[in-house]
Design a protein that fits this description.
By secondary structure, the chain is α+β, with helices and mostly antiparallel strands. It is built from seven helices and five strands, in the order H-E-H-H-H-H-E-E-H-E-E-H. The chain has two domains: about 50 residues; about 130 residues, FepE-like (Bacterial polysaccharide co-polymerase-like), CATH 3.30.1890.10.
Length: about 190
């Protein structure tokens, strides 16, 4: 039992230290809305919402690529790979909304990154419309509803550290106890 207790306490301490030594990161999210006022008003088709939803998924996927992240990285003077790794999107169900979220090590950069990415989505769509010469009535928009607010911190969680420490302590105790019992059983008499 003593070996199990020692191993359990050692693992609990390592787990607690590993979680609490993590860095604080900051996140900010800009809220966007995809819309096609002309088609929604004139088509009379129930599929128009499905079409806009499909387009919403398309542009959400493009946020994490060079097509969107590349110009954002160039604008902010950041490495493209870091920008791609810092961006994510959230598409709430049964809506035409998209959250563009940036996670970074400083609050100002997280906010600027989220805002610049949302702006780039709008610019990218406008450039596509111009490149493919889409007539104005058939163009959809992806507009900013809420600009990226001040970033919120997300740091090491004491409750996660305690949970991990307890789990590792139980595991360490069980392994230590089982190992000493096995050695005792296998020892010649």
């Amino acid at each position: 039992m003593v070996v199990g207790l020692i191993l359990g306490l050692a693992l609990a301490g390592v787990g607690d230290l590993a979680v609490l030594s993590g860095k604080t990161v900051y996140t900010s999210s800009a809220l966007m809305l995809i819309d096609d006022p002309y088609e929604l008003a004139t088509s009379g088709q129930a599929t128009e919402f499905a079409n806009l939803d499909a387009l919403r998924y398309k542009y959400a996927a493009l946020v994490g690529t060079d097509a969107i992240a590349g110009p954002v990285a160039a604008q902010l003077g950041l490495p493209v790979g870091d920008v791609i790794g810092a961006l994510s999107t959230n598409l709430p169900g049964y809506s035409l909304l998209m959250y563009v979220t940036a996670t970074w090590t400083t609050p100002a950069e997280a906010q600027m990154l989220a805002q610049a990415t949302a702006d780039e989505v709008t610019t990218f769509i406008s450039n596509e419309d111009n490149t493919y010469d889409i007539p104005a009535p058939y163009r959809f928009t992806f507009d900013l509803v809420d600009p990226a607010p001040a970033a919120t911190p997300h740091g090491p969680s004491k409750s996660k550290a305690v949970s991990l420490a307890i789990g590792l302590a139980v595991l360490g105790f069980g392994l230590g106890f089982a190992a000493t019992q096995l050695l005792h059983f296998l020892r010649p008499r």
